Amino acid sequence: MINLTVFQKSTPHALRAISLATFPPAFIILLTSGLALEQVNPAIGLVPLFFSSAFAALLLANERRCGCKAGGLTGTPFHFILDFVIGAGLLVCLILAWVFVGARRSRRHGIMLGTYGTNFLMCNL
């Protein structure tokens, strides 16, 4: 059974949990759109999305292990720098996906999947 109480603890808990919850559907949709479009974009967005989800899982596991409150999820310069780098990677992949998803006119059947997949990138920004 899925424990949904993490969404109710605090804002940092909810945001980290959203990052974890959106990775599996994003993986399926972005990979499928990459295969349908025969392009790397928007599927390359899975790389920073994976690091965002892995960082969120690490912070949530560490918070549970040490028993600290939301302060363990945010607040240190290392967290800020890593979140900033991951966010910049997500933003670059998001903009490139928007630019190049409709570049090849012959592959129109994957455009909607690519567009839906970019919603997960926006969720993790």
Summarize the structure.
By secondary structure, this protein is mainly α. The chain is built from six helices and no strands.
Low-pLDDT regions: none
Taken together, the total number of domains comes to 1
Overall, the morphology is elongated
Instruction: Provide the helix percentage.
Output: over 70%
Mean pLDDT across all amino acids = 80
Q: What summary fits the major beta sheet?
A: none
Number of helices: 6
Output the helix-strand order.
Answer: HHHHHH
State the assembly state of the protein chains: single chain
Q: Tell me the total number of β-strands.
A: 0
Radius of gyration: 16 Å
Distance between the termini: 28 Å
The SS-based structural class is mainly alpha
Beta strand %: under 5%
Structure description:
The chain is mostly helical. The protein has one domain (11-124). 71% of the residues lie in helices and 0% in strands. It has 6 helices and no strands. The chain is elongated and about 50 Å long.
Attribute tags:
single chain, 125 residues, mainly alpha, 71% helix
List the helices and strands and how they pair.
Layout: H1 6-9, H2 11-21, H3 23-37, H4 46-66, H5 77-100, H6 111-124
Helix pairs in contact: 2-4, 3-4, 3-6, 4-5, 5-6
